[in-house]
Every structure is written in C-alpha cells, then in structure tokens.
Write a structure and sequence with these properties.
By secondary structure, the protein is an alpha/beta fold. The chain is about 40% helix and about 15% strand. A 6-stranded parallel beta sheet has the order 3-4-2-1-5-6, sandwiched between helices. Helix 1 packs across helix 2, helix 2 packs parallel to helix 3 and helix 3 packs parallel to helix 4.
C-alpha cells in the first residue's frame, strides 16, 4: 500500500461557502481557519507526517483591502486559540512564503509559532502565507546563482541539490495533493514538490472538508498505482524508489 507521508491541500471555497449560507466572506475565512485545527489533528491520527496548507497566495493581494486585512488578523486568532493544543500534541509549525511582505503583527505571530514549536517532533504543520511556487523557484535559482558567483557552489547541481534552495528544504516530496470546492487546477502551488504527487479534486468546500472526506481521499490514494514514470506492476528503481 502507498504510504502518504506528505499531504498538501489547497483550501478553496471559503467565500462561496459563506455566500451559500447567507454570511459575509469573512465568516467563511473564520470557519476555514477553525477547520485547519480539525484536519491537522485528523491527518496526524491517520499517519500523515507533513501537512502543507495553502492559506494565502501571492495573488490573493488582489482581493479587497477589507478581506485581505481580515485574513491577516486570522493567525493571531488561530494561534491564540489552538497553539497550546498543537504544542501538547507535538506539532511543529513551519511557515512557507515571503513573510517579510506581511504586516509586522502577522509576521510576528507566525514566527512566534515556529519558535515555540521548534523542538517538537510530531506532525509538521506547514502554512503557506504569501506563497507562490513560480516565485519560490525563481528565488531558489537566484540563491543558487549567488552561491556559484561566491564560490560556494559549482555548476554540477542535481535535483536534490536544487531542492535545498526551496522553501520546503528538508521536507519529503508531496505524495497527495487535494484541492477543495470542485476547482481542478494547481494555482501556482508547490509546482516542484508535486512532480509525482497524486491529485484529488473534491466537491466539498474547505469549511465542509471533514476528517471523513480526508479518509476518503486517502482511501482513493492508497488504491492507486504510483509508478513514478515506470511500468504498472514493476517496482520503481532509482531516486523515485526512495521517495
């Protein structure tokens, strides 16, 4: 059976869920934030070791000032409410994205969560804030070029070496990518990391994404034949076999 060490979720549909329930979009974002706690606990109980969640993309700045402002206040609410429980469960927090562009208060809350949980060894809960995958790869290429210029690296770079320049350095590749709310696109999310991930698109919006839906996704994932470019029924060889 396939092992799912690393699952990533595009948490889509908060606003549409709110509209369908006659509520403002902010109510959808609040419900979505609370659901992070529910799904993180479920993922941990189901044996997932890395859970990476798309919370705010580099493109989301195009939304209204009021909506963006509300989203930027959610981390303070979220970690005040759930951080102690996460610490008790052994969760380790990681933030992925260009945090320097976030409001100072938001950035401080996120970095405090990372610092508080840095010695934990349980589920790695990775929150993508102000993240875009094309930008991530561009910044990685710039850092590598700077290392070559400064004599810290040579031109014999392979895929594993390049991964050390990404924001997910040290994490395994994504095994399963889930997008909620019925949309079927990647939206500039973890383009390098999902090279051989299995993709699942579910109709439930993120606030409706329950542990039971996660279990359903995992059951579908376990039933698939992951070939990593090989032939069905044959054991993969080389680097893919070690994923």
């Amino acid at each position: 059976m396939n092992e799912c060490r690393h699952a990533a979720i595009i948490m889509d549909g908060n606003g549409r869920w709110a509209k369908a329930h006659g509520k403002p979009r902010t109510a959808g974002h609040l419900a979505g934030a609370d659901n992070v706690r529910t799904i993180a606990i479920a993922a941990d109980q189901l044996g997932i070791r890395y859970l990476t969640l798309y919370a705010f993309s580099t493109e989301n700045w195009r939304r209204s000032k009021e909506e963006v402002g509300y989203i930027m206040k959610l981390p303070a609410y979220f970690f005040k409410k759930y951080m102690q429980e996460f610490l008790d469960r052994g969760f380790q927090m990681h933030m992925i994205g260009e945090l320097d562009a976030l409001p100072a208060d938001t950035r401080r809350v996120l970095l405090d969560a990372v610092e508080e949980s840095k010695n934990n060894t349980g589920l790695s809960l990775n929150i993508c804030m102000n993240y875009g995958s094309q930008r991530e790869i561009l910044l990685a290429a710039r850092r590598y070029a700077a290392d070559v210029r400064d004599g810290k690296a040579d031109l014999n770079l392979d895929e594993h070496g390049f991964e050390q320049y990404l924001m997910t350095a040290g994490m395994p590749p994504v095994d399963l990518l889930i997008r909620t709310s019925g949309e079927q696109r990647i939206s500039n999310y973890l383009l390098w990391q999902i090279a051989y991930a299995e993709l699942e698109f579910v109709p439930e919006s993120w606030p409706e994404f329950t542990p039971e839906v996660l279990k359903r996704c995992l059951q579908e994932y376990y039933a698939r034949d992951r070939r990593f470019g090989g032939v069905a029924g044959e054991k993969p060889v080389g680097s893919a076999a070690n994923l």
